[in-house]
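>> Question from a student workshop board

For tomorrow's exercise we were told to take the sequence and the ligand below, predict the bound structure, and bring the output to class. My setup keeps failing. Could a helper post the expected result so I can at least see what it should look like? The ligand is zinc ion.
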Amino acid sequence: MEINGSRFADHINTLAEIGKIGETGVCRLAHSKEDRQAVDVVKGWMEEAGLETRIDCFGNLIGRLEGKDQDKPILMLGSHIDSQPYGGRFDGTAGALGGIEVVHTLKDQGIDPNRTIEVVCFSDEEGSRFNKGVFGVRGLIGQLEEGELKRKDKNGVTRLEALREFGVEPDVSQSPVYQPGDIEAFLELHIEQGPVLEADNKPVGIVSAISGPIWLTVTLEGFAGHAGSVPMNLRQDAFLGAATITKEFNELVRNEGTPNTVGTVGSIQNFPNSRNIISEKVEFTIDLRDIDIEARTNLEKKLYQIIEKTASELNLEYSVSEDTKSEPRYCADWIKDIMKQEDEKLGFQSPVLMSGPFHDALFMSYISDYGMIFVRCEKGISHNPLEYAEMDDLQKGVELLYHTAAKIAQS
Ligand SMILES: [Zn+2]
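>> Workshop helper replied:
Here is what the output should look like for this input. Compare the format with yours to find the bug.
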């Protein structure tokens, strides 16, 4: 290995102490005291690696190493170091600290990169505090929305106040910071947060694409009635409608989806939610994802048919609102090719797999070619203190990141 595996392990373990909960969990909410403490510690590691650091007006921590040719578009590496309220030690940190390790290794090897390299710890990737995440990366690429700084956390603190408390003066007029053409490639290493690599018995994977989710909210309206007196054939039971749609949607995805399609009903609200009243109104969410947009569109059409048929059979009114519809974003072939070549030299035999969850990289993809490396994690558990990845696997992932980055930095 060319990276310094023990230095990287030290960094992971040291960062896991900040905001530690229980034996293995962390809570480092965006812009919080713990987040700031983590940013300060990681900033120190960036400086040891030879990066010049700054914390921008969105709370992003950015380290920069000037390349020999300043006219070349830069190479960017990064991920996030904020966490879920009940999160794990590796989500985000693996890629953020992995990026720093890459630059530190270049320095150890005496390599002066041709192009400038930046390593970014994006602020508020997780989104749990203000119920809207990937704030830092959206600031960088110009995808902030109206009123973003006015969003409040559960204690009534606005993002504006939280960022000031964190120590930066937010300024949305600075967005976007980067334009298409500024960045040659963005690379992110991340734990898989899924079970595919474990099932494949492989430590590392090369990502093909980040799948695009469709998020729908379905509302069904029937008529409330006494559970003891309304005969079955006269009911307009909204909950039964939701149950039927959920079951048929599940079968549809299983039977007609690609191996990559996933469909989930994850949240449901029932009114009046009483044991002896027939359900009058139900609202539930649908999450449908695939990297194959045609396959996804086809299933989406059939899902609407299921909803319509069920509502009509059960005598229910229905409406569907579309909350999110994002397209899958494909990793650049030329970056995947470099990864595959380097992977072969390292002998990892890493498979190619897609990402169901989104990452900072998804947003970077709108202004730059991007590539991602996944590291196996136990049972795919994440957003949970039980999240676990073997240090040996993480080091292999960072080694592949290093060789890929070195190639691009020298091109
Ligand atoms: Zn993450």
